[in-house]
Amino acid sequence: xxxxxxxxxxxxxxxxxxxxxxxxxxxxxxxxxxxxxxxxxxxxxxxxxxxxxxxxxxxxxxxxxxxxxxxxxxxxxxxxxxxxxxxxxxxxxxxxxxxxxxxxxxxxxxxxxxxxxxxxxxxxxxxxxxxxxxxxxxxxxxxxxxxxxxxxxxxxxxxxxxxxxxxxxxxxxxxxxxxxxxxxxxxxxxxxxxxxxxxxxxxxxxxxxxxxxxxxxxxxxxxxxxxxxxxxxxxxxxxxxxxxxxxxxxxxxxxxxxxxxxxxxxxxxxxx
Length: 272
Fold this sequence. Notes:
Organism: Lutimaribacter degradans
Largest sheet: 7 strands, mixed
Protein name: Enoyl-CoA hydratase
CATH architecture of the largest domain: Alpha-Beta Complex
Strand content: 15-25%
CATH superfamily of the largest domain: 2-enoyl-CoA Hydratase, Chain A, domain 1
């Protein structure tokens, strides 16, 4: 997993692609003909891939994006619902696959970034909100539309939105089902940065590179604290993130950071 460049892995019959370069894992949800709508097999693959990445000690950043220019993800593949959600039991099984994938994203021990072009709808916005950060292109459009489809929207998804963006914005998105432009979405905390189309790839690459070059042990300690803080207060256990933070002071990277500062040069962190 520590190769400088690794061939792309394909999952879910090519509908999910994973590649790695320089400590950055890139997950591409690859169904552009359906605006990257998530099939059940894609949800399973997304969970599998994230659980595997969580064990990679050389990993520094994970990005998630949709294939093509038209969409991040437009939600679930509704054409499958007659087969995959045709009863309460089937719907529960489908929901378990979605929850497993989303929880695996949340639990990744390194920064996670959603790269959003075009439509980010329904389950796509759930995936994006599970990431630490959302970097949108200026043509991005955000919406959650269960009220337009007669679907029941899960409690956990509503709770996540309410924690991230507050009661009013959650109510606005879910009650109206309207599409929200990128600038408004950033103002309301749905996305974190908006870049013009012409410089989107360059700007996001530079941002990710900066993050990947920072001290991995420091980053993992910070991420562990953020994961713990996202839990209900009664379920928190700060001992683990505190131990990770304390261990940074005994690391070679800590000594390298001091040396680089003294010598006025960029540090070369190795994660040890």
